[in-house]
Design brief:
Number of helices: 3
Mean pLDDT: 86
Shape: globular
Structural class: alpha+beta
Strand order of the largest sheet: 5-8-9-10
Amino acid sequence: EGRRGGKGEASAHSAPGATMLTMSSAAKRVPTFEELYREIEHLPQGITGQILIPGVLTTMSRPGAAHDHTLARCSRVLDPFDQRLDGRGWWIRQEFEIRFPGDRLAVPDLAGWRADLHLELPDDNPLRIVPTWCAEVLSSSTASDDRTLKLPLYASTGVARVWLIDPALRT
């Protein structure tokens, strides 16, 4: 049988496996982008942070071998288009921090900005220019966030194209 918690406590109702959490009437202060970004700057080497939901910092370790191999292959194929490498048409960045509208920060696996729209990209980090294109390499640990958090973020902020690359399916 379920028990009901008091103010600010978890409440478990009789539905099997369901737990409903209630918050106290005093609203908790949401951390600012700047506060969360300072935390990201102090993360240990090999850990990256993102703010996909305003006020919420998510962290993850560096990608595994399949992810790295897939990114390397993509980069090699895209090199002829990257302005930084004397290519044509795009500025392409790998795992570059981008500050999106709404105080959100994402680190797409690959991102591209059309060179005809941006003669140069600033040296800002995080970059505040929404990319034209993003690519995410899916893995068991990132696929859910890539699909449920990043795709809606990209769509709502004007990213025109998104690639979801699945190394296991080779797509």
